[in-house]
Automatic annotation (TrEMBL):
The chain crosses the membrane at residues 12-32, 44-66, 87-111, 144-168, 180-202, 222-247, 259-285, 317-343, 355-372, 392-409, 429-448, 468-488. SUPFAM superfamilies: SNF-like. Belongs to the sodium:neurotransmitter symporter (SNF) (TC 2.A.22) family. It comes from the Bacteria. It is a multi-pass membrane protein. InterPro entries: Na/ntran_symport, SNS_sf. Pfam families: SNF. This is Transporter. It is found in: Membrane.
Amino acid sequence: MATQQREQWGTRAGFLLAAIGSAIGLGNIWRFPYVAYDNGGGAFLVPYLVALLTAGIPLLILEYTVGHRFRGSPPAAYRKIARPAEAIGWWQVLICFVIASYYAVIIAWALRFVGFSIGLQWGDDPGGFLMSDFLHVADAPGPISTYVTGVAVPLIVIWVITLGVLALGVKKGIEWANKIFIPLLVVLFGILVLRALFLDGAATGLDALFSPDWSAITSGSVWVAAYGQIFFSLSVGFGIMVTYASYLRRRADLTGSALVAGFANSSFEILAGIGVFATLGFMAVSANIPVDEVVESGIGLAFVAFPQIISEMPLGAVFGVLFFGSLVVAGLSSLISIVQVVIAAVMDRTGLSRVPTVLGVGGAVAIASIVLFPSDQGLYILDVADHFINQYGIALAALILVIVVAWGVRGLRGMQDHANATSAVPLGLWWRVTLGIITPVVLGWMMIDSLITEFSENYGEYETWFVASLGWGVAIGAIVIGVVFSLLPWKRGGAQEESDVVEEGTR
């Protein structure tokens, strides 16, 4: 394997924008507002901020430090911590492969809905339009029988943009793209929020979101929800931040960067909550019904509830373009970061240059996406794969990584020393306690709680064969393939030779 000079970010601001762009995705807009509303409203901000400070930012710092110290993608970096830990890295690469394949199609939907907003083409029944006219969803899970060109075409456009940016490299591609995407997202979403605040009923919606139910913070489920939201919204557990940090210069403020990225992500989530609930308040007042009857999350909020609201509000077409345009931009910045994990791992492993790797490996992700998801079964496959790869992929991989670093090789002290050598904000005992005790306990409890629910009933009331094959099958398959990849020998002569594994990782 030929040794290549590792790419670098052009500026710290470029790295921060890319890290923030990765963290700010579709879930910030359509998941956080509902989770906050459903778990105590304004009172939810207390466990949310505690979770950010005791799990989110400490995990970000750990991933930044691992990537920066060992200068590699997850498999290469974890291999230097402990030889068996390489399997965790490949596991995360497979997780990113799966997530990228379906995440892209949601962005493609949003791209089409930018156009549908002009003329309000969903008519009087946005739900029927989405499921039947646009997605052509089958009545039940089964073999693929219909291919939907109306989804395939924008999906191809999304993949062309994504692979084009990645082919240009870290500095000229990813950094340059995020210098456009993030300011554009702030402008689009800022205008949208300002418009929402002046709608009739906006105050009603905001009151529903922020009125605190202080009794909720005594509930364990609320705290689990807070840690879950922080964990899934910060792009930790994917290997993304390990990869991005590996392109930093030798002198880099790791803790300061993590604090900026963490608080920027949370600020955007709160802004999203304001925009979404001000809009839902308008819908509730217009229909003369309580806010809780119009609250939704996920795809239902974005592609059913919001189109209905857009149809009823003044200048709705403009609002629709802003909203769905924001989804496209937020989604693209996250998708690029997810696919980059796969690209970086293969480049480190094989020594191939960037363009052939992007075309070959990135092209493989794109083909899987284009073949599976623009079909009458696409929504079912997306729903099950997303649930299981998130619950038993991202969270579980992060839990095992933290246990390996904190307790397996007792490497937190070495990581702390490395981060402190170049960072403005020093780490202390609090960081080792949060990662060594609090984070494993919370993630472990999330796993147990989720598994209890999983085994009590099939997810989404799907048939067992469907859950087993495309749910458990995908989640377990990522682990098995990751272990197999880790057993393949690295070619000698490259930067990842086995000679620097254990001592460097535990020093």
